[in-house]
Amino acid sequence: MPLTVPASAGQDRWSGFVEPEPGLSIPCTILRGRSPGPKLLVTAGVHGAEYSSIEAARRLTRMSLDGLVGELTVLPILNIDAFWRHRPYFNPRDGKNINRVFPGKADGSPSERLAAWVSGTAMPGMSAYIDLHCGDIIEALLPFAIFPHGHDRSRELASAAGFPYLMQSTAPGHSYRAAVNQGIPGVLLESGSCGRWTEEGVSLIETGVKRIMGKLGMLPDRIGELPRPKIWQTKLATAPVAGYWHCAVSPGTRVESGQPLGVIYDLAGSGEHCITAEVSGPVIYHVTSLAISVGEPLVGVATEISP
């Protein structure tokens, strides 16, 4: 059943709270243009400490209605418990990463139920969907836009954002994949690092969303056609052992296959484990934490898959 907010009826701009389930209230803003048109859903705060994306969503709720066509719905903080507790990655209610459990389960854990509400209530009836993220508390990264492999309209919208890197993903469990599975174009925009919100990180996301709105016909398209961007995918190095992680690269560094990315030192003794790049390309992302557990991500290297 699509999201309906009776209190917003007849209002050009409504802000308040919606309840995905009893005992869980999250902020919501609905903006309506003077003429009907596309409907866009924007979410942020799937990870509650990714502050640049949350602040960008907040600013979108205050945007001018001049020139707006259609309807914009913004849910700026989905993972509200993690937001208040400054928790990276996971939902404190069940310890799960919400952006790995889409489309969710209505009778599942708290994260699965929230994902099911987004998929089954917030998304239906929308013309497009954008999920906003930034580098979490222990993540340094370059800005990028993600679209699901094989969905041309999602690629077009992600490209319209004008981000430096356009990434193709085949990963399951993500919000944009749940949208595409319903026939709704879905993209993810990510800008900002280490949980800090900066004007640069926030502005890039806010502008990217407005560019996509221009592509959808919801705002005047002042950008025009951008050059066709390169498309990349990420090769992720993960930790084979637990220990102290010393990263030797930074976002934007060009690495070659076989080049050292960093070292994991044993917690006791003198053992060390060198982590090397499996592919050549720019470092798109790396973990800044000293502590690292087996299987956790360390460094993402982007590889070009189209000219």
Please give a structural write-up:
The protein has helices at 51-60, 80-85, 110-122, 152-160, 175-180, 199-216; strands at 13-21, 24-32, 35-43, 69-75, 128-133, 139-141, 144-148, 165-169, 186-190, 231-238, 243-247, 254-255, 260-265, 272-276, 281-287, 291-292, 297-306. The mean pLDDT is 95. Strand 1 (13-21) and strand 2 form a beta hairpin. It is built from six helices and 17 strands. The chain folds into two domains: 6-216, Aminopeptidase (3-Layer(aba) Sandwich), CATH 3.40.630.10; 231-306, OB fold (Dihydrolipoamide Acetyltransferase, E2P) (Beta Barrel), CATH 2.40.50.100. Helices cover 20% and strands 34% of the residues. Helix 1 (51-60) crosses helix 6.
Count of helical stretches: 6
Cα-atom Rg, whole angstroms? 20 Å
Low-confidence stretches: none
Shape: globular
Order of helices and strands, N to C?
Answer: EEEHEHHEEEHEHEHEEEEEEEE
CATH topology of the largest domain: Aminopeptidase
Write down the CATH class of the largest domain.
Alpha Beta
- Largest β sheet strand count, sense and barrel closure: 13 strands, mixed
Mean pLDDT: 95
User: In angstroms, what separates the terminal alpha carbons?
Assistant: 41 Å
Q: How many beta-strand runs?
A: 17
The number of domains: 2
Main structural class: alpha/beta
